[in-house]
Amino acid sequence: MTFKELYLQEKEKPTPAQTFIEEIAELTKRSTNTVRMWIQGKQTPDALAQSLIAEKYGIEVSTLFPDN
Fold first, then answer.
1. Residue 6 and residue 17: Cα distance in Å, rounded?
2. Helix (H), strand (E) at residue 25
3. I want to staple 49 with a disulfide (CB 3.0 to 4.6 A). Which of 25, 45, 59, 61 is the partner?
4. What is the largest CA-CA distance in the chain?
């Protein structure tokens, strides 16, 4: 395997951000696009999704999703 091939192999791996989005999507049974909307503040997860995420990370819902 060449040096460039090693680099390209590494480049194909998901980033930590992509992994986070995929894990939250799987946890909440939502699409990765929906999770991205939550991150951008364009949408807010429903109460069930909020509670699942809060439980996973051990953080209060009100801290994760503060009222604006």
1. 22
2. helix 16-28
3. 45
4. 52
User: DSSP letter at 67?
Assistant: -
Chain segment 6-26, per-residue pLDDT in tens: 999 999 999 999 999 999 999
Note the pTM of the prediction, 2 decimals.
Answer: 0.85
Whole-number Å distance between alpha carbons of 33 and 21: 9
What tokens appear for 4 in the block?
């460039």
Signed CA dihedral, 53, 24, 49, 66: sign only: positive
Structure tokens at 20: 């986070």
Calpha distance 50→46 (Å, rounded): 6
CB atoms within 10 A of CB 49: 19
Report the residue count for the chain. Answer: 68
SS3 labels along 34-64: HHHHHHHCCCCCCHHHHHHHHHHHCCCHHHH
